[in-house]
Amino acid sequence: MTSEELRKKVEIALDEIRPFLQSDGGDISLVSIENDKSVKVRLEGNCVGCSVNQMTLKSGVEMTIKKHVPQIEQVINIE
Fold it and tell me: If 0-12 CB within 10 Å is exposed, 13-18 middle and 19+ buried, where does residue 9 land?
């Protein structure tokens, strides 16, 4: 898989979870993909400083990205 294909698949995963974040006044953007294994994202809006954002990141975002791109090992939130 090329880096461009990988990026598209990660964006598709983020598009899948974005409506849930937006319903709470938040959003998410892709910052970078490193070594085709680690995805860096930025939680935005109401997601910034939210007490459940780490749970959201792990259970929602990371799980959804791994479903689309199994080779991804971790998702990191950049604040």
Answer: middle
